[in-house]
UniProtKB/TrEMBL annotation:
Protein source organism: Amphritea balenae
Residues where NADP(+) binds: 10-15, 70-73
An MF annotation (GO) of this entry: pyrroline-5-carboxylate reductase activity
EC number: 1.5.1.2
Family: Belongs to the pyrroline-5-carboxylate reductase family.
Residues covered by the Pyrroline-5-carboxylate reductase catalytic N-terminal domain: 7-100
Organism superkingdom: Bacteria
Protein's name in the database: Pyrroline-5-carboxylate reductase
PANTHER family from the UniProt entry: PYRROLINE-5-CARBOXYLATE REDUCTASE, PYRROLINE-5-CARBOXYLATE REDUCTASE 3
Keywords: Amino-acid biosynthesis, Cytoplasm, NADP, Oxidoreductase, Proline biosynthesis
Binding site for NADPH: 57
Keyword NAD in annotation: no
């Protein structure tokens, strides 16, 4: 990374910890990271790793070039309004990972006229396999875009979207996406057990198969549909599984789930954005 700005994570929960862990694993200096929370005991492991920790969000804002808002969307208004004076004084770049909450709402809660990037990351950031969608408001400079890209790319891939509404779709694909794959894994392990394997063996095989399929899809010059075809021998075993999945409407079920996810992202903005 060309420059290493000081980062302040407001809220050190699951998502912030995945990003911080990914950054640290990638060599980001721990002393350039601040993490805040309401309970000092829950921050002690981070402090032991050399990060700066505090329960005072304003103190973290004062130290930071980039403030990453990582509290629940339902908490964001109160947390933002509480730190507005410190943000206006120090003018850091604001990066929000909160689902749904629009730049305009956040800007007004934080006192206005701020450079804000909305980021929709995902938890595989922890193992450098994260996928983040990014959207910048008009006040964000080219240099700030570059800085944000570099930070999120240290945890995986990062892509910019052109409209804020597209972040609802990013949430449906990659933000929430790990949960879909975990659910498929859960179901495969359970079905493997039912078919006579031990839980341990079913889990080992399921996880390795998920990783193998993902890695093949990544390295291949053909798409997932062709890769699937190559596993599916005519009159063979896979064909029967695929036929059953198709007859039972698996593609439609996935599309419906993702539509519901995107709708919820849009609804959060209306519910919590005022
Ligand atoms: N978990 C995920 O996979 C993803 C989460 N997100 C977004 O990340 C944000 C955080 O989600 P999670 O990490 O899952 O939630 P979480 O509940 O694990 O983390 C939120 C943290 O904020 C802390 N907090 C609450 N009030 C605070 C305050 N006043 N000052 C400082 N910290 C405070 C809580 O103690 C908690 O540790 C949400 O807005 C969510 O939409 C985005 C993408 C993926
Ligand atoms: O479930 C949620 O609301 C968050 C946002 C994307 C993934 N987790």
């Amino acid at each position: 990374m060309s420059t290493q700005p000081t980062l302040a994570f407001i809220g050190a929960g699951n998502m912030a910890r995945a990003i911080m862990g990914g950054l640290i694993n990638n060599g980001y200096p721990a002393e350039k990271i601040w993490a805040t929370g309401t309970n000092p005991e829950k921050l002690s492991d981070l402090q032991q790793q050399g990060l700066n920790t505090t329960t005072d969000n304003d103190a973290a804002v004062a130290a930071a070039d980039i403030v990453i808002l990582a509290v629940k969307p339902q908490m964001l208004k109160v947390v933002a309004q509480d730190m507005a004076a410190a943000v206006q004084k120090h003018q850091p770049l604001i990066v929000s990972v909160a689902a749904g909450i629009l730049c305009n709402s956040l800007d007004s809660w934080l006192g206005g006229q701020l450079a804000i990037v909305r980021c929709m990351p995902n938890t595989p950031a922890l193992v450098k396999l994260g996928a983040s969608g990014l959207y910048a408001n008009a006040a964000v400079t080219e240099q700030q875009r570059q800085q944000t890209s570099e930070i999120m790319q240290a945890t995986g891939i990062a892509v910019w979207v052109e409209t804020e509404a597209q972040l609802d779709a990013v949430t449906a694909v990659s933000g929430s996406g790990p949960a879909y794959y975990f659910m498929v894994m859960e179901a495969m392990v359970a079905a493997g057990e039912k078919l006579g394997l031990s839980r341990e063996v079913a889990q080992q095989l399921t996880i390795q198969t998920a990783q193998g399929a993902a890695e093949m899809a990544r390295q291949s010059d053909v798409g997932p549909a062709e890769l699937r075809r190559r596993v599916t021998s005519p009159k063979g075993t896979t064909e029967q599984a695929i036929k059953t999945f198709t007859e039972q409407g698996l593609p439609e079920i996935i599309a419906q789930g993702m539509q519901a996810c995107s709708d919820r992202s849009e609804a959060l903005a209306k519910e919590l954005g005022k």
